Amino acid sequence: MVHEVEIGRGKRARVAYTLDRVAVVPSRRTRDAKDVSTGWQVDAYYLDIPIMSAPMDSVTSPETAIAIGRFGGVGVLDLEGLWTRYDDPTAILEELAELAPDKAGVRLQEVYREPIKPELITARLAQIRDAGVTVAGALSPQRTQEHWRTVVEAGVDLFVIRGTTVSAEHVSSNREPLNLKRFIYELDVPVIVGGAVTYTAALHLMRTGAAGVLAGYGGGASSANRRTIGVASPMATIVADIAAARRDYLDESSGRYVHVIADGSVSSSGDIVKALACGADGVMLGTALARADEAPGRGWHWGAEARHPNLPRGERVWVGSEGTLESIFFGPAHNARGVLNLVGALKHAMASSGYSDLKEFQRVEIVVQPD
């Protein structure tokens, strides 16, 4: 039953929950954390950990994508980012890290005016492929028509189409929109698409043939959607709704399983645990990985929303550096803030609840904490 409240005589609103408002309840059975599997199969690709990096220049470079792949996850490169606009963006990243806060927004818009170069898309994806890890790259829906062929010919394993809000039924009077159903049907590459924040939107995306749906707006700490355009939706409810769409589509399609990846507002180990408990198969991390010593943002974090030429819906934010990528994934942790040993924390939560794999863990009991 949907719980609604009246916010005025002419308007009712649905009650929704952030990850901060929910918690996992341990069951009567526990197990040894060494017996817990965090493995995840996405199409033909088996991953040791259910983690993808967000396609943000402050998080994922070709080098960090390779490192994340070697640790058992997937590094997703932004194919509209600095790495496909400049032969060597190192100096620009250093400059962005040194800028005063009041100068950062304008400079971000300036550096992203450089055109995307198809030959750099090919070169960056080839660099990741040569390292022997799963190759994943992301385009926005607006750029997919222009660059998809280059991406596919470069040999991408997972093609991510990621935007703040992605619809299977986008309407435009001034240009032909991307027909996701036709586009995905014609590709031999598994496509992960989003963001989606409602049951209906996610179900429509699943019907396009997508291998996975990104649940959430992405952006995380660098997003300012609520402030700029008044749009937001709490992540626990988003994931639970889209997991329900996955279940119903599984019946509708006679057994076709679409992965749900929580994307946004997942920045600590506890957030990861609760997103998976709400029904996600995996998570896409931005802020959590921007804190790595190796992160290209050097302690600063921003997403595609921050570089929009006319209406930025995000900003460069300071997240600091907590340790190496390895310590962020596997520890050891030196504090209880949930920013190190993300995988260890997930295994501990699963073991304390008695579940041995991620699919089982989606059945764990959840409670809503009072205000």
Provide a descriptive summary of the structure in words.
This protein is α/β, with parallel strands linked by helices and about 375 residues long. About 35% of the residues lie in helices and about 15% in strands. The strands form five sheets. The protein has an eight-stranded parallel beta sheet. Strand 10, helix 7 and strand 11 form a beta-alpha-beta unit. The chain is globular and about 55 Å long. About 0% of the residues have low confidence.
Descriptive key words:
alpha/beta, 14 helices, 35% helix, globular
Order of helices and strands: EEEEEEHEHHHEHEHEHEHHEHEHEEHHHE
Care to count the β-strands? 16
Tell me, briefly, the overall form: globular
Head-to-tail CA distance between termini: 21 Å
Please summarize the sheet with the most strands. 8 strands, parallel
Range of strand content: 15-25%
Quaternary status: single chain
Low-confidence stretches: 169-173
Strand arrangement across the biggest beta sheet = 6-13-12-11-10-9-8-7
How many H/I helices? 14
Roughly what percent helix? 25-40%
**Helix and strand composition category:** alpha/beta
Estimate the mean pLDDT confidence.
Answer: 90
